[in-house]
Amino acid sequence: MERTFIAIKPDGVARGLVAKIIKRFEQRGYKLVALKMVKPSDAHLREHYADLAGKGFFNGLIEYMKSGPIVAMVWAGENACAGGRMLLGETNPQSSLPGSIRGDYSLTIGRNICHGSDSVESAEKEIALWFGKDEICDWELPV
Ligand code: CMP
User: Fold this and answer.
1) pLDDT computed for residue 142 by the predictor
2) Domain-by-domain residue ranges, the chain?
3) Which of 4, 48, 91, 107 should be mutated for ligand 1, with most atoms under 8 A from CB?
4) d(CA 48, CA 129)
5) Which SS3 state, helix, strand or coil, does residue 88 take?
6) 36: annotated binding-site residue?
7) Which of 4, 35, 43, 79 has its CA 20 to 30 A from that of 138?
8) Do the annotations mark residue 79 as ligand-binding?
9) Residues that bind ATP, according to the entry (predicted)?
10) Element (H, E) at 71
């Protein structure tokens, strides 16, 4: 089953959007297999965003991600990476359609509420970075 890593960033937590975001993933039919609230270290965040290290906004991004707790999750289901990003909307909220999480709740790319893996390969890397194997609870609905 495909898995994706979804994080509710400090602005999403502070604005009380945790339950609303979880609800959208549950409603769509994805299965929650891991969830925790964390304040990751500087080094952890720099590793998570390593591919953006050369960007002018990089240090600001790391400070933003350290500004409060993050809700880190793993969701599983058919096409979870692309489908999860569809629920989140575009990285830049200005390009996000109403109905998507960013399209409904955010205005600027520097405060875009949530993160979602952009491919199956990054999802597996991100899941391994944020969660230990014993923190993933795979489960099936009883028949
Ligand atoms: P995310 O989906 O977590 O992936 C990379 C993050 O970098 C992105 O969301 C934004 O939070 C941030 N980001 C990307 N582009 C910019 C930008 N031009 N200015 C500020 N932050 C950005």
Assistant:
1) 77
2) 3-136
3) 91
4) 7
5) helix
6) no
7) 43
8) no
9) 9, 57, 85, 91, 102, 112
10) strand 70-76
CA-nearest residue, atom 1 of ligand 1: 115
- 115 C-alpha vs ligand 1 centroid, how far in Å? 9
* Catalytic-residue membership of 48: no
Q: Report the nearest-CA residue for atom 15 of ligand 1.
A: 109
Against a cut of 0.90, is the pTM above it?
Answer: yes
Q: What value of ipTM does the predicted structure carry?
A: 0.97
CA 4, CA 139: separation in Å to the nearest integer? 16
pLDDT at position 141 is 77
pLDDT digits (tens, 9 = 90+) for 12-70: 999 999 999 999 999 999 999 999 999 999 999 999 999 999 999 999 999 999 999 99
Report how far residue 139's alpha carbon sits from residue 37's, in angstroms, rounded to the nearest whole number.
Answer: 21
Among 57, 81, 102, 125, which is best to mutate for testing ligand 1, by the most ligand atoms less than 8 A from CB?
57
* 8 Cα–ligand 1 center, Å: 13
CATH architecture of the domain 3-136 equals: 2-Layer Sandwich (3.30)
Pairing of strands 114-116, 31-38: unpaired
